[in-house]
Design goal:
about 425 residues; alpha/beta; Rossmann fold; 7-stranded parallel sheet; 6-stranded parallel sheet; 14 helices; 13 strands
Length: about 425
């Protein structure tokens, strides 16, 4: 077997379809931020789309992450654009920008980039290909034809992949059940958060509530999420309506924006202007807003391991959620929150109302949630495990030079 020779500083490409605000995007960005830069040169390849959910592409560029934008790379299935994107991706892999030699590792995220970039990487002879599964895209809410297409595409792409990272054990199991990859290809590395940022001691709860016009003693439930099909925003807002009707003293915070905002809000009529419903839009102070809540809600149809649930739990909040993706691995019924069926706004409202009506129980469950999540979801541990996976792959082909004990490199600002 031929020996793969790489320079002392290993060139790594993180590839993702779009850099709007989301868990997969933050994982790619945080890997570039925190990986050992004396050992790895980490770059980014992405499409141009961002959107009302927020823009992380400019964040990556402003932080100095070398970034290649492939204009035809879009989320939607567009055969001609996809073919053009594939050709441009191949060109970027064969002739990496900025000099410094070829890529040793290509690490993809999300479905579209995951398929196109992995195929291009294998065609271009990239030594190591890694893909992170941030939740599988086949769901009961989509057509059989789409589900069949995406499953077969993922099966083929797994053949071009050295390692598959699942952000939840649930995703590893679902992938194997669907025939995607082999057991030895998988590693579970949970999508993690900055535990220093998401800590209740750093938030002045009374001040945040004052800014929002919420009395200090009022019960507050809320959510953080995009107005997109995956997040079921209509279900969430119906749950908010039921909750506010049943608890006249309660308030509800909805943090987020997205392409379905107008379509979801228009049918609500007067309720969209309810004085105790706070539609806060896109915000950069999510930790502060979580700190103003007593209970966190999630209504998603599907997820991987939703980062926002870990963020809420790190803020000592109990969580009421659907059993989407890896949620049941952290939201343990009766211990750190409650699980309710998909598409059940009355169930969401009822479970949230029980916790809001029993503050001592909610605080106890929230404290337990915080203890558990702080053991598992440290972003520095996540990047360390990704880095170790890279090193193990290279060691398997006789490449030495394992990096020293993990030391993160944080970009100021």
């Amino acid at each position: 077997m031929s020996r793969v020779v790489v320079p002392e500083r290993v060139r790594v490409l993180q590839a993702i379809t779009r850099m709007m605000v989301g868990g997969a995007q933050l994982t790619a960005l945080q890997t570039c931020r925190l990986i050992d830069r004396d050992r790895f040169r980490c770059e980014l390849l992405t499409g141009p789309q961002t959107g009302p959910e927020g823009d992380l592409l400019s964040v990556a560029v402003n932080e100095g992450t070398p970034t290649t934008v492939v204009e035809p790379l879009v989320r939607e299935i567009r055969p001609w654009k996809d073919w053009s994107a594939y050709r441009k991706i191949r060109g970027a892999l064969l002739r990496p920008p900025g000099g410094g030699g070829p890529y040793t590792i290509v690490h993809t995220h999300t479905s579209k980039a995951g398929i196109l970039v992995r195929r291009a990487a294998r065609a271009c002879g990239v030594p190591f290909v890694v893909h992170t599964v941030h939740g599988w895209q086949w769901t009961d809410t989509r057509s059989r034809a789409f589900n069949r297409l995406i499953r077969e595409s993922e099966r083929r792409a797994a053949r071009w992949t050295d390692r598959l990272i699942a952000v939840a054990e649930t995703d590893r199991v679902r992938g194997l059940e669907a025939g995607v990859g082999r057991p030895e290809q998988y590693r579970v590395i949970e999508s993690a958060i900055d535990l220093d940022e998401f800590h209740p001691a750093r938030v002045d709860r009374k001040a945040v509530r004052g800014e929002l016009g919420i009395p200090p003693g009022s019960p507050v439930a809320g959510t953080v999420g995009r107005f997109a099909d995956q997040k079921a925003p209509g279900v969430m807002l119906e749950a908010a309506r039921i909750l506010l009707e049943r608890m006249p003293e309660a308030h509800f915070l909805y943090v987020g924006d997205g392409p379905l905002r107008d379509a979801v809000l228009s049918p609500l009529g007067e309720f969209a202007r309810h004085p105790r419903l706070h539609l806060l839009g896109l915000r950069t102070d999510v930790a502060r807003l979580l700190g103003a809540m007593d209970v966190f809600l999630l209504s998603s149809w599907y997820e991987g391991m939703p980062r926002v649930v870990a963020e809420a739990m790190s803020m000592d909040l109990p969580v009421v959620s659907t059993p989407a993706g890896g949620v049941p691995e952290v939201v343990v019924e009766g211990e750190t929150g409650h699980l309710v069926p998909f598409g059940d706004p009355a169930g969401l409202a009822a479970a949230a109302g029980i916790l809001l009506g029993d503050p001592a129980r909610a605080r106890s469950m929230g404290a337990e949630a915080g203890r558990r999540v702080r053991k598992r979801f440290d972003v520095h541990l996540m990047v360390e495990r990704i880095q170790e996976l890279y090193e193990d792959l290279m060691a398997g082909k006789g490449i030495g030079g394992r990096s020293r004990p993990f030391r993160s490199t944080v970009v100021p600002g």
